[in-house]
Amino acid sequence: MNAQQALEYSMQPFIPMFIYGDYDAMESERQRGEEAMKALLDEWRTNEEPGFDFGVILTLADQNRELCDQIGEARLRNLSSPLLARNLTDADLCAGIGKMQGRAASAVAREVRGDRDAYSVAYVRKPIKGTVLGIDIETTGRAPERGYIINVGWEIMELTSDAVPHDPQAFYCGIPDMYRETGVPLADIHHIQWSDLDGKTPFREDVKLQKELLKLMKRYPIMAHNAAFEDSWFMLHLPGYAEARRAGKIIVIDSRHICRSVDGEVRTLPRESAPASLQNWARRRGTLAADENELHLGLDDTDLMLRTVQAEFNLKNMFLK
Q: d(Cα 147, Cα 233) in Å, to the nearest integer?
């Protein structure tokens, strides 16, 4: 499906009740919808004048979630997502390093020249400074076009050797009432129960929360562990995010990439041990005790990430003196 076909698809009436109960029909419609979203998202990212508003993609994503609820979250849980990015782009990585070092992203790009191993040098070439908005979300799955954001937490921290994260915020966000009976998906990981979400406004409907987040994201670069995950979800859940990202008003920093580039121990440890996971990195840096586990709640994980990044930067003497 190309972008024009995807646009034509988006203009068709969405009348889901005609196919509810017919699994094959619902699955076929889901695949078409996700293919359309992928085509439009690719067009949005590569064409400076895509010819459509990003709201078209957000509407398709909302429709797809409604359809996926009827198909059943358990059926789709292990299905890969065409709209979940696995990594940030090189341009994003260079922009993040540049922001933390007070220099142009183009200067970092000239040093790296597409060589992934060169990032380990780029991160330490200039002192780290500035302020970041640490953020983490918990969701009902891995696919942003199928699931819901149910918990978001953030803190602000100056990038100095002794800074303490401040202005913490945490929110639970509601999901469709059908999950009252079926249970909150992935509760075995994040331990969020229906009682935490009951009566809460869904993220996609919480205009106040959306505006507050977007304002902070434009003011500070955002830092997340495996930031491509948060970036993919905010693209399909936070109005205005995609536009601000493309305009360069939002810069995303991946603390997992920092770990993989700066922490030399990562390369010596078995890959199957997930050495760059936040939990294992934090244990090595002493910000999490050996017998403690990552909590998988937005604010708690954000705080742990920021303190662990700070510990890594202190260990390597990377802060501005």
A: 9
Q: Are strands 222-224 and 252-254 parallel, antiparallel or unpaired?
A: parallel
Average pLDDT over residues 188-194: 93
Tokens found for residue 30: 């889901």
Q: Which domains does the chain have, with CATH numbers?
A: 3-71 (no CATH), 90-316 (3.30.420.10)
Looking at residues 17-23, what average pLDDT do you find? 76
Query: Does 14 score more than 80 pLDDT?
Result: no
SS in 3 state form for 87-132?
A: CCCHHHHHHHHHHHHCCCHHHHHHHHCCCHHHHHHHHHHCCECCEE
Q: How would you class 291 by CB atoms within 10 Å of its CB: exposed for 0-12, middle for 13-18, buried for 19 or more? A: exposed
Is 159 in contact with 130 (CB distance < 8 Å)? yes
With pLDDT > 90 as the criterion, what percentage of the chain qualifies?
83
**Alpha helix (H) ranges present in the chain?**
3-10, 23-46, 55-71, 73-76, 90-101, 105-112, 119-125, 179-182, 187-190, 194-197, 207-219, 227-237, 241-246, 255-262, 278-285, 298-315
Listed residue (266, 230, 225) closest to 245, CA to CA: 230
Measure the CA–CA gap between 311 and 316, rounded to whole angstroms: 9
First CA to last CA across the chain, in angstroms?
53
Amino acid found at 268 = T
pLDDT of the residue at 105? 96
Q: Has residue 114 got a pLDDT over 80?
A: no
φ, ψ of residue 103 in degrees (nearest 5)? -140, 170
Strand, coil or helix: what is 133? strand
Report the pLDDT value the prediction gives residue 293, as an integer from 0 to 100. 86
